[in-house]
Design brief:
The protein is of the alpha+beta class and 453 residues long. It contains 16 helices and 17 strands. The chain is 48% helix and 13% strand.
Length: 453
């Protein structure tokens, strides 16, 4: 069979004369030198890769033989151990050396197996992180149900593959020890405990119309605003639901939403105790795909302007187990209240010359909450990060860095904007009539009881 050389051409060369049979001599010339070079390079790479794979297979085979030998060694030692026990009884001095040998072999085998598993796991994780994703993947992995069932480790792994922007919601737990645009200082709050009892993050409206404590939710709002007469309260609630005034703080579209900050914690505006803040963290991708929202999910500036409004579905709220709860680990708190400050039997902060008094007998905040969850296991979040240092935003960034979670860059913008609406949108006003009815009924009852004294 004639051999074909696709990258060569055969030519007659008159300077070479003739063969013994009187035929002209031929010479083979390279038709495409670069193509030949690349072909040879490819063949060499293939040979090298095949050799590399072969070498790895041989190394793995040797490791497996070594592991098998160690397992057989353990079995042999075990048999010897049983024989000696049968012959000599449980003589500690006679069997001590054998015990040490067995323990050493078991340790070596476990370390070997752990090393092999770690290498395999690392390779699998790397492939997962680099795998491209489609819209169907986003819907699957960022549903409330899917996120709620993840462990904290799998949660971080998920965020390494997708855009890693996070949004936070700080709870008001303990004594409010600062003044902001939102409210003044003083007063004891149980925002975190109430959220865990509900199992969901809810807006003011959501708490007012769905929880058993709806009257308390509206009364609390009346007290926070400082309304002292029924007429003022009725005027307030009418202004709240007025369609013309929507989009501003304090109106219906505001209190009908759950508020978040993007990539930082707004504890100075919405928190309670400095150095003892509890906050929830959710993937921005989850909010973007599951809820209507207004505001930035990624780069929205800091402080007061970093205010993301999120409207849930039918005031159901957002499952807390779809997120991660960050709890301070090293704050010194009262063992009975979990607060850094002294409070009386009615939970009123104790003061001295206008200053809050720190608790004297304290335990760590981590110890307090672990004891609390032991007494109330049904209220324990599925994913907890205990953080140190007292700075919530620093703790958030540290956790992202530790788990190699990176932001998504410009490619995320189209995904983040898919359900973005204005604060005057009808979605933001859902349930306004129902809220008005409930609020007016509560106001009537509250001021009737107040007037009776």
């Amino acid at each position: 069979m004639k051999k074909v050389w696709p990258n060569f051409i055969t030519e007659t060369d008159p300077y070479l004369g003739q063969t013994e049979q009187g035929k002209p001599r031929h010479v083979h010339r390279i038709k495409d030198a670069e193509a030949v070079r690349l072909a040879l390079h490819g063949k060499r790479r293939a040979i090298e890769e095949r050799a590399d794979v072969t070498q790895k297979m041989r190394e793995r085979e040797m490791r497996m033989k070594e592991l098998t030998g160690k397992m057989e060694g353990i079995q042999g030692l075990s048999d010897e151990y049983d024989f000696l026990v049968e012959m000599h009884g449980y003589d500690a001095s006679a069997l001590e050396l054998l015990d040490e040998q067995i323990a050493t072999y078991i340790k070596e085998v476990r370390e070997h197996v752990d090393e092999q598993f770690a290498q395999h796991e690392a390779a699998v994780m790397e492939r997962w992180e680099l795998t491209p994703y489609a819209e169907a993947d986003i819907k699957k992995y960022f549903s409330e149900e899917y996120l709620a069932k993840l462990s904290i480790e799998d949660y971080a792994l998920l965020l390494r593959r997708f855009p890693g922007e996070l949004v936070t919601h700080v709870t008001r737990q303990g004594v409010r020890d600062r003044i902001s645009h939102h409210s003044g200082a003083g007063g004891f709050y149980n925002g975190f405990e109430q959220t865990m009892r509900a199992g969901r993050l809810q807006s003011v409206v959501g708490r007012a119309v769905t929880q058993e404590m709806k009257e308390a939710a509206i009364v609390s709002e009346i007290k926070d605003i400082g309304l002292t007469t029924k007429e003022a309260a009725f005027s307030w609630v009418q202004n709240v639901v007025n369609p013309e005034g929507q989009g501003k703080p304090g109106v219906y579209s505001d209190i009908n939403s759950v508020h978040f900050a993007a990539n930082e914690v707004a504890d100075s505006y919405y928190g309670a105790e400095q150095g003892n803040e509890i906050f929830f963290v959710f993937p921005a991708m989850f909010i973007a795909t599951a809820y209507h929202h207004s505001g930035g999910l990624a780069d929205s500036g800091g402080g007061y302007w970093n205010d993301l409004w999120v409207w849930d579905q039918e005031n159901r709220g957002i499952n807390v187990d779809a997120g991660v709860v960050f709890i301070p680990a090293d704050a010194r708190v009262d063992p009975h209240t979990g607060s850094r400050y002294l409070v009386d039997a009615e939970k009123n902060p104790e003061m001295n010359d206008g200053e809050l008094l720190l608790a004297d007998k304290t335990i760590s905040s981590r110890e307090y909450w672990e004891q609390y969850f032991a007494q109330h296991p049904e209220l324990r979040p599925s994913k907890i990060v205990y953080y140190e240092g007292g700075d919530p935003t620093a703790a958030l960034k540290s956790w992202k860095q530790k788990n190699r979670i990176a932001n998504g860059g410009r490619a995320r913008n189209a995904l983040f904007d898919s359900q973005k609406i204005t604060r005057r949108d009808p979605v933001a006003m859902q349930g306004a009539e129902r809220f008005l009815s409930v609020a007016e009924s509560v106001i009537e009852k509250y001021f009737e009881a107040t007037d009776r004294g």
